[in-house]
Design goal:
The complex is a heterodimer of chains A (338) and B (503).
Chain A lengths: L13 H25 L27 E5 L3 H12 L11 E6 L15 H13 L4 E5 L6 H7 L2 H8 L2 E3 L6 E5 L8 E5 L8 E5 L1 E5 L3 E3 L20 H11 L4 E10 L12 E10 L2 H11 L8 H8 L13 E4 L9
Parallel strand pairs in A: 1-12, 2-3, 2-7, 3-4, 7-10, 8-10
Antiparallel strand pairs in A: 1-11, 5-6, 8-9, 10-11
Helix pairs in contact in A: 3-5, 6-8
Chain B lengths: L2 H22 L12 H5 L1 H11 L9 H11 L2 H6 L1 H12 L5 H7 L8 H14 L9 H20 L13 H13 L7 H6 L1 H10 L4 E5 L9 H4 L11 E2 L8 H5 L5 E5 L6 E2 L6 H20 L20 H7 L5 H5 L5 E3 L12 E3 L12 H5 L10 H5 L12 E4 L5 H5 L5 H5 L7 E9 L5 E9 L9 H5 L8 E4 L20
Parallel strand pairs in B: 2-4
Antiparallel strand pairs in B: 1-3, 5-6, 7-10, 8-9
Helix pairs in contact in B: 1-6, 3-4, 3-8, 8-12, 8-15, 9-10
Classes of the chains: A alpha/beta (338), B mainly alpha (503).
């Protein structure tokens, strides 16, 4: 039966036909375009990693590459150690953003020697700020809860006392870094947030025994910035540490040996595992610094395979003599060397 | 200011305070805040744990404030303070009916609102037998849902920047429970508060003694029923007031056009229904069924007599029987734990121990220098233990032991696959380490012999913290795992003879 517009039953108007056919056609074309647009036979390629800049200073033949000081006043020891290297002015310029990387891996008090002495952290941060640094930031991707590590190790308080900033790891602070010439750490998630806009990087490792790696010193200290499944690296820890030293080229390394965790490392747990060594070492050659650190643990360079591997790669020398090593004595306040 | 406006401000203030205090239950953020204030103020927790464990722990004495307050003015807690009540009130507002007539119907009393009294009776009877089932107390429920679900969800969405992105087994269940309770407001406003809440039932019972309450003057009343339209408790202010249901919300007093409704001291009781609407026979049946449940639970395999390997309790946890008589399952310990190791139990502790805290070392581990769970536990199921006690510093002889680690030599990289690893030994926090190295001569696939160091656990030194399991690189099923054997709090789950008697 025709309807009121005179169309036969079951027949739509021309207008309705055109609108509906148009919509259906557009939907079909749109779906096809979307499908073909998203179509991909390859899985999504992994985004390229970030390359960390080289923070190391120009080598100077007239200066030693590593020195150590034995004493009791950390601030005085620090100045005394930096003097032969050229003083803090060689490393920190006005306006620098300095990233200090202590070893804050565990939520343990300073007395057990598993973390960098907060006195050392405070002294280095204060010295950088006094040399004109615009900002000093301190960070570690700890094994225990990071907030508690910073607090219980005393490093948070040290930072607050001089106005340095603590950067805690959050998921957004990590990004892949790449180093194609490495063997293992060619591309790996890394705590990059503290590097953002940083102009200088100073490693502040502590001197510790480690069953598998033999020693935890300056190069191993960068392990604390790795993310991802870093526990797998123990299957080839020696090469991994050399890879880390290839990846991170610091401005300076200041090795805290005020206390040495000579056994039961790297966690410690008891002050009886700790020897008061009252020593601080500073150097621009990370291999030489670690060679000296190993000697405090009673190890020859040859007994620490990552030192040889790093030396082979040209990252430094295990020959302390060639590095111009000096052991400076006496900073006892009021003592004979005052 | 109108009294109802003051009430709304009070509700929002206490809700905000509750959310803030729970947010503050975090390392470095606690700063002396009483993070468990609302749990302490909840008198049902105090009363039920007193019945089940014969003690009133620490701050639980604060419950007296609410208890005594209720004796004087009725269920003010429900109407003015309870954060879950306020959430229900706000959710109810979303589903508010337009017409007065529909609202009168929605806010009318139903006989099934008495269900909450039977729930309360079952809780108290079981508590008398030492079986504490307070999982559905409103403060407990809200604390648990926020701690294990809502806050972690916000943490996840914010990428861990706003709050930690913790993970919880069955987290969705606890959040879902809260959503379901709020959605029930679409059926009847404040459904939870009126029909199910055991704390509401308890306060309803107490309010029977109430000195002050709402009173309607029959001579002034014009029977317009406006008071019944927005009544929070469905307590029939337009008829004989059901005193046990009244939330003291004061809406009836505000809306009455003839000022027939007042809040006054000692009005005659003959004009109202002071007691809850409970049938004696049903109450008796409920108590008998609950009492029958007790021997059934006791006759089942229970974790106090036959400890399960996965039931690793947090440090400071009291012996299992006492633990089940004290833990209310609020989840404060799960919220505060910095490593996320404390998880709600499923059936590891039996039916009655469901949602109590246990340690899942695949997710986290017990941090050596940490005592936070004991600091926040509101009922002493986890004692407020000191660090010296946990670490076994003198004069104590031994540290608190949670369990013992065991190496699965087949899965271990060093033992089973001849690949050096030793992560477990590296991270072991005790001194001397509880994992020592055994040198073993191995042969690789080409037959070449070499020496490899393999980890072995010294069960005497191991404290069961689980850091080794957490960091073991054999990621799916760890090659070193902690089980509860040897835990200090048990006198059946034992492993070793004392060292002095083993030579």
């Amino acid at each position: 039966m025709p309807d009121e517009r005179g169309l036969p039953e079951g027949i739509c108007s021309r207008r309705e036909f055109l609108v509906r056919a148009g919509l259906a056609g557009m939907a079909a074309v749109g779906a096809a375009a979307l499908g073909f647009g998203l179509h991909n036979r390859q899985p999504a390629a992994k985004a390229a990693g970030l390359r960390l800049p080289d923070f190391s200073v120009e080598p100077r033949s007239d200066r030693p590459r590593v020195v150590a000081v034995k004493g009791d006043n950390v601030e005085a020891m620090l100045r005394r150690a930096l003097d032969p290297l050229g003083g803090i002015g060689r490393f920190i310029e006005k306006g620098d953003v300095v990233f200090l990387k202590p070893n804050a891996g565990f939520a343990t008090p300073p007395s057990v020697g598993a973390t960098t002495n907060p006195e050392v952290v405070r002294a280095v941060a204060a010295l950088c700020l006094a040399a004109g640094a615009a900002k000093v930031r301190i960070a570690d991707n700890s094994i225990n809860d990071p907030r508690r590590c910073m607090r219980i190790s005393g490093i948070a308080k040290a930072a607050e006392s001089v106005g340095a900033e603590i950067v805690l790891p959050t998921p957004s602070g990590f990004q892949d870094v790449e180093q194609p010439e490495n063997e293992i750490l060619t591309q790996w998630p890394f705590f990059v947030a503290p590097f953002r806009d940083a102009t200088k990087v100073i490693g502040l490792p502590v001197t510790k025994h480690h069953s598998l790696a033999v020693a935890t010193l300056g190069m191993k200290n960068w392990y604390g910035l790795l993310g991802g499944r870093r526990d797998r690296l123990h299957q080839n820890i020696q090469v991994s540490i050399a890879d880390l030293a290839t990846l991170v080229r610091p401005t300076l390394t200041i090795l805290d040996a005020t206390r040495v965790l000579f056994r039961n490392g790297p966690t410690g747990g008891s002050p009886s595992d700790v020897r008061e060594e009252r020593t601080l070492a500073a150097g621009v050659d990370p291999v030489a610094v670690d060679t000296f650190g190993a000697s405090l643990l009673g190890k020859e360079a040859a007994e620490v395979p990552y030192l040889a591997e790093a030396e082979r790669r040209g990252l430094g020398t295990t020959d302390l003599k060639a590095a111009g090593f000096e052991m400076l004595a006496g900073t006892r306040v009021g003592g004979p060397f005052g | 200011m109108k009294l109802t406006r003051t009430r709304l401000i009070s509700q929002l203030f206490f809700l905000a305070l509750f959310l803030f205090l729970l947010f503050s239950a975090e390392y470095g953020r606690m700063g002396g805040y009483p993070v468990g204030l609302f749990l302490a103020l909840d008198p049902l927790i105090g009363v039920a744990t007193a019945i089940s464990s014969h003690t009133v722990y620490r701050d639980l004495l604060l419950g007296l404030i609410v208890l005594v307050g209720t004796i004087f003015v009725g269920r003010f807690f429900c109407g003015w303070v309870c954060p879950l009540g306020t959430l229900n009130h706000l959710a109810g507002g979303l589903f508010r009916r337009r017409s007065v007539k529909e609202r009168i119907e929605a806010n009318r009393y139903h006989a099934f609102f008495a269900v909450k009294y039977y729930i309360l009776a079952a809780i108290l009877v079981l508590a008398a037998f030492g079986v504490l089932q307070l999982a559905f107390d409103p403060i407990v429920l809200l604390t648990r849902s926020l701690s294990t679900s809502v806050y972690p969800a916000i943490g996840t969405l914010s990428g861990g920047d706003l709050m930690p992105a913790r993970l919880f087994r069955f987290g969705w269940l606890f959040g879902g429970m809260l959503i379901a309770i709020l959605l029930l407001n679409a059926v009847i406003p404040r459904f939870w508060c009126r029909a199910l809440c055991p704390l509401g039932a308890f306060l309803g019972l107490v309010s029977r003694l109430g000195i002050f309450h709402v009173y309607r003057s029959e001579t002034r009343c014009t029977h317009c029923d406006r008071c019944a339209a927005d009544c929070h408790g469905a307590c029939a202010p337009n008829g004989r007031l059901r005193k046990a249901e009244c939330f003291v919300c004061m809406t009836c007093r505000e809306v009455c056009p003839t000022a027939a409704i007042t809040f006054k001291g000692m009005p005659p009781e003959r004009d109202l229904l002071p007691a809850p609407d409970v049938s004696r026979r049903r109450l008796l049946t409920t108590c008998v069924v609950a009492a029958l449940g007790y021997p059934l639970l006791r006759a089942s395999v229970r974790s106090d007599r036959l400890p399960g390997p996965a039931l690793i309790r947090p440090p400071g946890a009291v012996p299992e029987e006492e633990f089940l008589a004290k833990c209310v399952k609020c989840g404060e310990c799960m919220k505060i734990c910095p490593t996320n190791v404390i998880q709600p139990a499923l059936l590891e502790a039996g039916l009655e121990g469901m949602w109590t805290p246990l340690m899942v070392n695949r997710i986290g581990y017990c941090e050596y220098n940490c005592t936070l769970c004991g600091e926040v536990c509101p009922t002493g199921a986890i004692r407020n233990f000191s660090l010296e006690e946990k670490l076994g510093q003198p004069p104590r002889e031994r540290p608190i032991k949670l369990g013992t680690a065991t190496v699965d030599r087949g899965r271990c990289l060093a033992w089973g696959k001849n690949i050096p690893c030793l992560v477990c030994e590296e991270v072991c926090p005790v001194s001397p380490k509880a994992i020592y190295l055994e040198k073993r001569t191995a042969r690789d696939s080409s037959g070449r012999e070499f020496v490899i160091e393999c980890p072995t656990v010294d069960p005497e030194r191991c404290i069961g913290c689980g850091l080794c399991e957490r960091k073991c690189p054999v990621y799916d099923k760890r090659a070193i795992q902690v089980s509860s054997v040897g835990e200090s709090r048990s006198d059946v789950n034992l492993l070793l003879l004392p060292e002095s008697r083993r030579d």
